[in-house]
């Protein structure tokens, strides 16, 4: 069907745009930065040994936790409607892997997504939002968490009311002012319109 191909090409193009924006620093970042906080944290996360027994040089546990928190925030928004089917999971995984440009392996992301799904099922969305927020200490990191989650919300072609609600709860839990979610969504919309 021609309509489906058009949608696939359009969605694929949107996924590519989202991945590129995830890898770039936000508009408010200091000049001279070439990577986003997600990408910088991914370098450390990706250097974690598979057995977690021996950490290779360059592993930073704080950066790895930041990476997990950023990915979890996006995961929570992607799961806002209570459904996260295989197509959504594959798109989510592809966007994160593409944005990280080889700094994190496919198996690592798949395992992280599996863990996140179990945690959401066990704890519920609200508790997980609080857990993400608890691990974020700096305002620039909090804003990046919100920006990444906003970008991922656009993968499905726009931000639904339920996704916006999760973004607002996330912004509030992160201690950001009420305009932070609107600002993140506006920045993302402008970046994806380029």
What do these coordinates show?
The protein is an all-alpha fold and 194 residues long. The chain has one domain (2-192). The protein contains nine helices and no strands. The protein has helices at 2-23, 37-46, 61-78, 86-100, 106-123, 125-134, 139-153, 161-173, 180-192. The longest helix is centred in the first third of the chain and has 22 residues, at 2-23. The protein is globular. The two termini are 29 Å apart. Mean pLDDT is 83; it is low at 1-10 and 51-55.
Describe the structure concisely.
This protein has one domain.
Structural class: mainly alpha
Biggest β-sheet description:
none
Shape: globular
Distance between the termini: 29 Å
Indicate how many domains the architecture comprises. Answer: 1
**What is the residue-averaged pLDDT?**
83
Number of helices: 9
Task: Give the number of DSSP strands.
Answer: 0
Low-confidence residue ranges: 1-10, 51-55
Could you give the order of the helices and strands? HHHHHHHHH
Roughly what percent helix?
55-70%
Radius of gyration: 16 Å
Name the beta content range: under 5%
List the helices and strands and how they pair.
Elements: H1 2-23, H2 37-46, H3 61-78, H4 86-100, H5 106-123, H6 125-134, H7 139-153, H8 161-173, H9 180-192
Helix pairs in contact: 1-4, 2-3, 3-5, 3-6, 3-7, 3-8, 4-5, 5-6, 6-8, 7-8, 7-9
